[in-house]
Amino acid sequence: MNSTDYLFMVEAIKEAKKSLKEGGIPIGAVLVGDGKIVGRGHNRLLQNDSSILHGEMDCIENAGRLKGTDYQKSTLYTTLSPCTMCSGAVLLYNISRVVIGENTTLIGPEKMLKDNGVEVVVLGIAECREILEAYIGENPKIWEAELERVCYSTD
How many other CB atoms are there within 10 angstroms of residue 27's CB atom? Predict the structure, then answer.
């Protein structure tokens, strides 16, 4: 595991824990450009009664309006495999690299990202999986309701 990737994933995990403290789903993300965090965010679906504020979307929003070339040179770190919506934002902004904390709880369209030239790295960090699995175990009805709203790929 690349030590730089691990350090930035630790920051995404901090965002996931922040969401959990707020009563939300523990998924976090950071956007990194030129070795610096330019955006951070976490899942705010429950906190904001939102249908789109996944951790990755919140992170990209919080980065502000970057130049196209800045997005192209950036890496998105996310604690969970990004869903179709978040993957679409990665493609829309030409983010060149996505580093995923874990993809065993849920897997998004990683193949679509790869097929469109995005470098996808899965770190397989147990803490990312454990935080989300604990949340699911304690909040199964909330989790099931959220899954009914989105479609995750199984391949």
Answer: 32
What is the C-alpha separation between 58 and 45, in angstroms, rounded?
10
Question: 88-112 pLDDT, tens per residue?
Answer: 999 999 999 999 999 999 999 999 9
Given the residues 15, 56, 102, 110, select the one marked as catalytic: 56
| Amino acid of residue 70 | D
Characterize the bridge pairing of strands 75-80 and 28-33: antiparallel
56 counts as catalytic: yes
Q: Residue 25 in contact with residue 58, Cβ under 8 Å?
A: no
pLDDT tens column, 115-153: 999 999 999 999 999 999 999 999 999 998 888 877 554
- C-beta separation of 102 from 125 below 8 A: yes
CA-only gyration radius of the chain, Å: 14
